[in-house]
TrEMBL record:
Biased composition (Basic and acidic residues): 678-689
Signal peptide per UniProt: 1-31
Composition skew (Acidic residues), residue ranges: 524-539
Protein name: Choice-of-anchor M domain-containing protein
Regions that span the bilayer: 698-717
PROSITE patterns xrefs: GRAM_POS_ANCHORING
Organism placement in taxonomy: Bacteria, Bacillati, Actinomycetota, Actinomycetes, Actinomycetales
Gram-positive cocci surface proteins LPxTG domain mapped to chain residues: 689-724
NCBIfam families on file: choice_anch_M, P_ac_wall_RPT
Keywords: Cell wall, Membrane, Peptidoglycan-anchor, Secreted, Signal, Transmembrane, Transmembrane helix
Amino acid sequence: MTTSTRPRAQALLGALVLASGLLAVQPAALAADPAYTDPSVIKSDPITLETGHIDAFNPVATGDGQIQLALKEDVTGSGVLRTPESVTLKVKESAHTAIPDGYPGAPGGYLLPLTQNPDLIWPGWDTMHAGAAVGVTDLNAGRADITISDVQGPGDVYIFSQSGFGALKSLLTDGGYQLPGTIHQDGLAHVHTNWVFTEPGRYSLTVSSTVWNAEEPTRTATSQTATYTFEVGTFAKVAVTGAPEGHAHSGSPIELTAAGENLPEGAAYRWEVKRADQSDFEAVEGQSGSSYTLTAEQALNAAQVRVSVLSGDEAVATSEPVTLEVDDHGAAPLQKVDVSGLKDHYHPGDDVSLSASVSPASVVDTWAWYVTNPGESEVQVEGADSSSVTLEAGTAVNDGATVRAALVKDDGTVYVASDPVTVAVEDHEEPAATVAIHDAPDGAVQAGETVTLSAAGENLPEGATYRWEVKRAGQSDFEAVEGQSGASYALIAGQGLDGAQVRVSVLSGDELVATSEPVTLEVEGAEPDEPEAPAESELTDATRGGVTAPASAEQGSTITLDVGAAYAGQAVTVWLHSDPVLLAESTTVNAAGAVSVTIPADTEVAGHKISVQDADGGALIGWAPLEVTAADEEPSPDPSDVPTTDPSGEPSDAPSPTPSGEPSDAPSPTPSGSATKDGAKQDQKKDGLADTGAGTEAALAAAALLALSGAATALAARSRRRRG
């Protein structure tokens, strides 16, 4: 921006003082112009004026009681009339100067002085050609108000004059100097004054004028409201080019370009549209370049488009809007709306969910939905302003109701609408979900045979799961089989399932929707009187597996065997080998496919085998190796293994007494609960020890060794006493 020195400010003050008598050009008695102005002579082609005499506010009489606010200029001719909107008044950068303290606009601004500077525009106002509209023949009898009601721009605008030796004089009715304000004239006159603009940029002044006859006060005339544009100094500015000169047809492209001056480096653009149905401009998303192509459609007829230049987030310049004209000569809009998602029928309480789409795309993006129920008027669905809607069958829409979707303009008028779709609501019950078990055996099956059951249903919910349930003979309730949620269930028949009932339920989430009738299983094969252990010859590498056991277990500990979920609910028998010891008879496999057994406390510390067989028929399920280790706690000494002493203190070789105090030669009993291979309780076997692989000879040898050791100890003690 140009700066000025103090000497120039002093010269300005002198000029203002010397020019103080040149405010108005109005002879003492001058006949008013009696002629009317033909509005057609007022030019409207765009023009920019940078110098010369200009009467910016120039109302002219166009008829009795009618005036039009025009601009008069002597730049392109003499007394050329133009519409205010067609003229841009350019205030050059050279108009910037320092302004003395106490004057409007101090300390500096763009000054258009009261006296003409041939390098600048010289704007004023002239009301002398408006009197004819109100019958004024003497200018002194005329009265005029020029009202500047609004000022838009980057800075302030002042007008002022001086009286005497440079004293400020207000031209506004409020006594001030800053616009907006009203200029009043007692007598129609031609006036020039000082103008100051404090900042560079584009200013818009909204102006109207009123004249009346002081001798006939009822005779008055008021002009239209006009807009005046001043471009002050050097500043960023932008304009939109490329708008069609005539009208466009729907579907044709409209290519607009931003042309700017003095734009900051790296500037971005913001394109904005205001349709005829909108009150404000709206930014076009995704358009930040210097060009913008849009497709003509009827909703864009009379729409205004402008562009702003941005430096960061700050708008440094905004163009004047261009107005689009789209005319399809009476044809309907190209856009068509379709509604989708309608089902064949609904039931009361169902959601009727519909979606709308438009093709080709439209600048109108607000939706409305309308419902017409039989016998009722169409109503708009409240709150439904998107491209989808959900209505409740039997409440919002009844059987035979029609629904349509529409794009609506901001003023609420329908732009384009779909054809109505008809909703069918049938008040009948949905068929119930059912399920049945197929592939159940026609008759009895053999124990050990695999039975596969299948569930087949109708009207089942999508994503349904299954729950298989078994009630064995003698049980009061069905029990769910864990891990079985598919449509089929394979199980191994056993005597424990003879007479068992199996059924299947269908679940939707946690909700039970259907349960089958149960089927009853019949398993052939008599229940054995006593379990019979698998022969050692059956426990081969070929039959190893089918059972998972821990690698080792302590004497007297309880272990868990994994038989497999397929045997859940089945009865099994468990043996410890080599000489078989029955660990569990007809025990039921739990839902996880496991059974628990206890290793006898007197089991030999050695390697063993553990086998599992179907209790219903004795079929071998499988076997696994098991290492039995010694228990953690030391066992109490067996009194029979410790030499006794007589009352004299001498060791005795007599057998240990029985609990009654009498010696006994009877072998020790077996642990309670052990069984022989034929299932009978073992009262006495191999000197009272359960035999799981240890030889009888080894046991006898150990006993003899213990006796010899005791005898030797006693003899040594006697020898020591004799020597003592």
